[in-house]
Amino acid sequence: MIFAVFFVVTCVKASDYTEFKPKCFIQHHSPVNWTADCSYTRITRLPADMKGFPVTEIILRHNHLNSSISFHNWTHLRRVDLSCNVIGVVTNSMFSEFTELARLNLSSNDLRSISGEHFVNKLYVESLDLSHNTQLTPHEHFFDDLQKVIDRGMKRLSLRGINLKWLPENYFERSYELKVLDLSQNQLKTVSSFPTSLSQLDISDNLFTRLTFTQFRDCVNLEVLIVENNPFLTDIPEDSFYCARKLAKVSLRGNLNLSGIPEGLFVNVPLKYLSLADCGFRTLSTAFRVTFDRLQYIDLRNNPWECNNNLKWFLELETNVNDDRLRCNNTDTSFAEYYETALDHGFLQDILFVLMCVIATLFGMSIWIVYSSEFRTKVKNLYSPLDSVTNTSQPVYVSTVRSTSHS
């Protein structure tokens, strides 16, 4: 009887969604796996009428929840989204009901501290998002508290846009399970190293001036690297990614002062995706053709390309480089227009060259014929009279020996 009542409570629904007050929509993935979406409901406390239901994921974005909330008796929860609220401190009681969470999103709050004892010392969080909490980093214990949470086996971490200016030396050396790390939209100038386990890294919108071998020497599992919009990035040494032997996707888009990369930068990596868009490139060596030919996607747009014969190999690549969207900085035309015109000019030049060769050959042959004719004529009439107007057919012998008469 008890089982029947539970089954009816969990399965009865008018449609794919069940509505609670406040207006939260419940999506039923299975009788024991529900998602509750209470976004934009202006609530100031957690909806108590859902505690008894098998809600495994709750979405509470864009509300007015503060540090006083507590997930007491929410025993089924595994994924919690508290983004865009007014939480200032992660208290000890806030998540004390849980020993583990698959995903916790605390982005875009007013967080100043995450030092709740249960959160720091006991709770296992597989994926943590602290993005856009700009008051976090000045807190003196922030790095220590966060490191304890990370080192308990965290797999995904986002610290996007929290005004990070630095990270302690070898901060991630014990982060053995960390696979995805987002440090974008900060003010970092360098990071000493990244963890071995990392497969995806985003350090876009920072103040990096160069990328080094030391930073990536442990990144033997790195597959995706996003380094976009670093305005001071000018140097990427040839050995920077030497140990990143699984690197398949690299985006260097938007680094305006990056005007060149070494020819051997991607020689040892199985690269499939590369973006060099919106940088400062004017030319690229044909040595990159081998690397570019094996790519599945390449983006070379919005660079100040100096179009000439040195870049014609772009159009011969097996990978589609979208040449109709590439523009020549020196002629203000598209690649297609420039090289189509250049091809026409080259064709006309080839024709003109052939004609000149033919004319020169004919001129030379005519001179040779005239010369040969004159030569044969002179040879044939070696003894013509000096004052004769007409040629003679027989030779004339002139003797210069004085004759003597005998008496």
Structural class comes to alpha/beta
Query: What gap, in angstroms, lies between the N and C termini?
Result: 178 Å
Shape: elongated
- SSE string: HEEEEEEEHEEHEEEHEEEHEEEH
The share of residues in helices is: 10-25%
CATH topology call of the domain at 79-346: Leucine-rich repeat, LRR (right-handed beta-alpha superhelix)
CATH class of the domain at 79-346: Alpha Beta
**Poorly predicted parts:** 1-19
Please, could you describe this protein's structure?
The chain is α/β, with parallel strands linked by helices. It has a domain of 268 residues: Alpha-Beta Horseshoe (Leucine-rich repeat, LRR (right-handed beta-alpha superhelix)), CATH 3.80.10. Helices cover 19% and strands 14% of the residues. It has 6 helices and 18 strands. The strands form 3 sheets. The protein has a 14-stranded mixed sheet with strand order 1-2-3-4-5-7-9-10-11-12-13-14-15-16, with no helix packed on it. Strands 6-8 form a two-stranded parallel ribbon. A two-stranded antiparallel sheet has the order 17-18. β1 and β2 form a beta hairpin. The longest helix has 46 residues. The protein is elongated. The N terminus is likely disordered. InterPro entries: Dev_Immune_Receptor (IPR050328), Leu-rich_rpt (IPR001611), LRR_dom_sf (IPR032675). This is Leucine repeat-rich protein. Pfam families: LRR_8.
